[in-house]
Amino acid sequence: MNQYFRLFTWISLIFLSGFPVHGISQAENDTLLRVLSSELNYEFAHLGKETFPPYYMDYRVNDVHTYYISSSFGVITDEDSSSYRLLTCNVRVGSYDYDNTHPTEDYSAQTRYGFYGYNFILPIEDKPLSIKKQLWLATNEEYEYASDAYSDLTIKRLSKNEDEDKSPDFSHEKPEKYYEPPVSNYLSGLDKNVWRERVKNYSGIFLNVDNIMSADAVLSASYDRKSFVSTEGSEIAENEVQYQLMVQAVIRADDGMTLPLYKSYFSRTAAGLPSDDSIRQDILAMRDLLIRLREAPVVGPYEGPAILSAGSAGVFFHEIFGHRVEGQRLKQKDDGQTFKNKIGKAVLAPDINVTFDPLRKSIGGTDLKGFYRYDDEGVKAQKVNVVEKGILKRFLMSRTPIEGFLHSNGHGRAQAGIKTMSRQSNLIVTTDKPHSGEELRRLLIDECKKQGKEYGYLFEEVVGGFTLTGRRTPNAFNVMPTVVYRVYVDGRPDELVRGVDIIGTPLAMFAKISAVGDHPAIFNGVCGAESGSVPVSAVSPALFVKQIEIQKKQKSDYVPTVLSIPGKNANQ
Amino acid sequence: MCQRSCPYPAKMLINKTMFMRNSIKITGLAFVFGLLFSSFRTVAQEPGSGAQDKIVFSALEDEINRDMDSLRLPDHEPPFYMAFRYSDAEILTISASLGGLLQVHHKRVPSYSSRLMIGDYKITDENFESSSTVVPAGETGIQIDLPQTPDYYGIRRAVWASMESLFRSANVHYKIKKAFLTKNHISIEDYFPPDFSIEKATVNIVDAPAFDFDVSYWKKSAKQLSAIFASYPEIQDATVSVTLIKAYIYFVNSEGFKVKIPFDIAVVQGSAEIPLKEGDPVSENFLMAATQASGLPSLDEMKERVKKFADYMLAMKDAEVLQEKYSGPIVLQGDAAGKYIFHCLFNNSSALIAQRIPLEDNSTNLYMPTEPPYNSIEAKIGKKIFHPALSVFDISKDSSYQGTPLIGHYEVDGDGIVPPDSYPLIQKGKLINLLSSRIPNLTYRHASGHNRAVVSSQGGLQRFMSPGILKVVSEKQIKYKKLLRQAKRIAKILNLDYYLVVKDMYSEKPVGVYKVDVHTGKETLIRGIQYLPHPVNALDERAVFGEGVNVVNTILNVPVSIISPASLLIPKVEIFGVSRLEKNRLPVVSSPLKR
Question: How far apart are CA A474 and CA B296, in angstroms?
């Protein structure tokens, strides 16, 4: 893997250093960028004459193009392509030290751009007048909101307690210039006819399975061209093309429990997706596992040793660790601030390192979804070593500083049309003391014996999870496994079981991670939080945890159908 | 569009939100433009070809037959009725602002609705509202999307999943309803009226002409129409949208109904706003609609209308604000007359639609009614409650009126019921009939064929009780000038300095409202009136109908056409003007159009 890192860095340097010089001249001919820049400057100059003038403004435009094919049980249910441009306008009134975004107890004021979103649609064509009019409307609305908020804050400031965190509200950063020419045809490598058939066939594989509830396959391709201009002088145009194939099937057990399984493939090119044969083999295996899962026994609460497979460990880390090192969160008055005072202290075993590297495009030939060159605040993406040898070193920072971390490290991210927060990118867990799979298994069995357990657990696949980081609720997490095995100490074969979630509190859990595997797996997904859904990756080897807690999963109670699904065995 | 020439830009203004079944007002629109995405995909084969009909009907019939025969469970009643409505629509939506395309979306969208009843025609699981959760229905948790284009098994799977779920919930509901009736000592014999009407099953396959989706033409049109507003810097925000829908709705039920009906519509509409320093912004809309894209006006004609609309916006900006309560005569001219009559008859609590109030399990002193409530519209059937010269018919099967195409035309309703050639609602002031569905009430045991199915701009299937073509005639009509003189006379009797003339309506909002000075006859445009009351008794013996005929095609949840007297005088209407003009904060920076 180290060799791979070096190779990648070399390629990246050429790639990254090649574009800007060539690109800047092209940027002069980019109509959208020019219109954004000229309107921004015009608005900034004229608003500057107001009682509460803005000290900073930016426009971010996501020009998004998508294409997808979806199927259910072997028939195409939707095929569509779309294009839209979403504008996010950012106006800051006051100063870098204290502005309209200053944290308050009024949660509603802070979440104007939260999950509910707020955005302006821009024309999909480069029509300057039409674009300017939308920019003008958005700026006016945003300025009104910002100046009102700042005015309120200045009054409230007189009568409130001193802030716990005295860091400024907005960090000073170097303006960036970067230009990539637009992608002419992001679907050029995609044979729609071939993929239509493949997508149909993948979901059709499940048609003859008894008690199947749903079987869907979706191929999606997207091209997001982000244009960013700021009054500090940043001007960035960056492209991101993504392809993803997702297959999902759900089966019902006799007790009414629904059991889902998923397969997902990600690449930046159509050609980079696995071969039809390989995907079919995976889906056939998934179908067989689904049938076995249906017959698996339901298990109850447990506390004891467990292994999180490489596939599930990444999600586990993302949920229980990653969200707690998102720096901006630590400035929120109602956040649990798990790690705020842990800088320089051990938070994980001394052989574990946790890095967030948005500049990492792929690992071992698999593309990483959390890759980007500039974040959504126009700051150059940086590799951030958050944990080194078990010691917490730094946080993921947007341009919202916290005490001790006054600059962004390129992790201010957001969904198109929503304002930014510090968010995760490519989470990569590594270890200085890797253990083979056999060694981890031996450690598990030994620990079970030590604790007097008949078995431990192996969490092979997880579908996702959630974590609560606030103060008003227990600072806990829940990770939802889909494939779980009991590993018996007496040598019996591993037993597939169902019906449990992993729960716990973060600090207690980190202390129990005792060994790390030697082979990483990659989870490419989408993370949802205050600033919307952003693409992320989580890369981790398997983990051996001395103590894990599981609870019974909330159980659905679906009844069987009276009749069989139409078309079952139709082709046999 | 209009039978007569359009002297006024607001001729184009058309209501988009009105009423639905039982006159419950809704905010959801049949033609909502909420699409975020734009698309350029070519839709390969248009809906409704013969080969596709065969697939759709076979799938619907085969699965309904299987489910009717085989959906059985211990302690469950078998289904007595099943119906599946499936729509296959090709939809193009485009929007533009100041000459730039905001969105383009062109795709094939299937949609469905299903119904399963337990019991029999006399007592089903329906017409009963229960708050009981004692016996929750088991759910299969299965919902299967329709195939994007007709596929035999794909459609069957959607039908099956839906019916499996309805079978269980209908059974639970039926049991609760029966137990409730038993508890209240209501026997099956006493239960009245029946829950579902018996209708003669029909097979109706209605085809429509091919529909031209000329995407590039409509993109160009939307851009050019929206670019007109660039010459009107006072107008802060203006958008022009195009919606073309070519759809077929298939309906099959277990009684043997087998129906295919078209739903085609072409709409160009727009909205614009001028913010003001004081009071509400001037916010207006326009709309042009036809059943075919080719039926819309030419691009040059549309441009003229949009320019007139923009001019009207500017005039409204400087118009006098009505800042008092007005209680006096109102003259409704042209399209306003037809739309106002429609609102009076179908958009209030006394709408001419047969109602069935469902039983509720929390009712006390339960009894089966033998006659409708005395104050209901149903109780007024046979009585002269309208102007003695007024007659109103629904003639939905007519496709044109004296050469003007009628967009409210349809052959078969969404339940497969064929409306009569002419359905009298009011005859010489006497209320004769209400529109009725297959849910009987004390007066109506059969459906009148007005439960219309439409496809929204998002592709969803919706149903509304509505006439298609409302023909309003008065045996007593007077010349327009005389009608105005009457308005003036009434105003003077009421000690008013002016009376009002309304030239169009958009929803319940009057558009193009002028006050006419009773002394000088001077017309002055006014603004500030958001709502024009339209009680059913506005059309009583005091109403005055003007000579001539006006035809207006519009969309009031569903496409409707109104043929009516060319003007109407309502002697006394109470209108509330603006009580207080609030100060507004206008944009600090000048609009790009003004720089």
Answer: 61
B63 touching chain A per CB within 8 A: yes
- At A467, the pLDDT band (50, 70, 90 cuts) reads confident
**Of A113, A10, A12, nearest to A371 (Cα)?**
A12
Which of A43, A78, A567 minimises the CB distance to B156? A567
The CATH number covering residue B179 comes to: 3.30.2290.10
DSSP-derived 3-state class of residue B405: strand
- Count of CB atoms situated within 10 Å of the CB of B299: 15
- Helices B299-317 and B215-227, axial angle in degrees (round to 10): 30
How far apart CA B97 and CA A122 sit, in angstroms, is 9
CA–CA dist B430, B372 (Å, integer): 18
DSSP helix/strand/coil, A379: coil
HEC readout, B386-397: CCCCEEEEECCC
- The verdict on residue B548 lying in a domain is no
pLDDT digits (tens, 9 = 90+) for B357-383: 888 877 666 777 778 888 899 999 999
Cβ contacts of B39 on chain A, cutoff 8 Å:
80-83
Average pLDDT over residues A62-76: 97
Which one, of B308, B301, B244, B265, lies nearest residue B13 by Cα?
A: B308
- Residues in chain B closer than 8 A to A84 (CB atoms): 36-38, 103
- Going by C-beta distance under 8 Å and a sequence separation of 6 or more, which residues neighbour residue B192? B368, B370
CB B566 within 8 A of CB B473: no
Q: Which chain B residues in 21-50 lie under 8 Å from chain A, judged by CB atoms?
A: 36-41
Using a 10 angstrom Cβ sphere, with 0-12 exposed, 13-18 middle and 19 or more buried, the burial of residue A194 is exposed
Distance, in Å, from the CA atom of A260 to the CA atom of A249, rounded to the nearest integer, reads 6
Q: What are phi and psi of B134, to 5 degrees?
A: -60, -40
The domain tally of chain B equals 1
Instruction: Tell me the helix, strand and coil percentages in chain A, rounded to 5.
Output: 25, 35, 40
Determine, for residues A561 and B138 on separate chains, whether the beta-carbon distance falls below 8 Å: no
% of chain A residues with pLDDT over 90: 77
Q: Is residue B314 part of a domain?
A: yes
Say what the ipTM of the complex is. Answer: 0.89
Residue A48, judged by CB atoms within 10 A of its CB (0-12, 13-18, 19+), counts as: exposed
| Chain-centre distance for alpha carbon A174 | 26
Widest CA span of chain A, in angstroms? 79
Residue B403 falls inside a structural domain: no
Query: What is this structure's pTM?
Result: 0.90
The token pair that represents B578 in the structure block? 């603006």
Window B:145-174, CB contacts with A under 8 Å:
145-149, 151, 153-154, 156-157, 159-160, 164, 167-168
**Tokens representing residue B119 in the block:** 């019991």
What type of residue is A332? Q
How close does chain B come to A564, measured CA to CA in Å?
9
Domain locations along chain A? 17-159+166-295, 302-552
**Do the chains contact at A566 and B70, CB–CB below 8 Å?**
no
The Cα–Cα gap between A93 and A55 comes to 6
Looking at domain A17-159+166-295, what is its CATH homologous superfamily?
PmbA/TldD superfamily (3.30.2290.10)
Rounded to an integer, what distance in angstroms lies between the CA atom of residue B468 and that of residue B455? 15
**DSSP H helices in B388-510:** 480-493
Tell me, yes or no, whether B93 lies in a domain.
yes
d(CA B592, CA B229): 12
Contact assignment for B589 to A43 by CB distance below 8 Å: yes
pLDDT of residue B313 exceeding 90: yes
What residue numbers bound the domain in which B197 lies?
46-319
* Helix (H) / strand (E) containing A192: helix A192-204
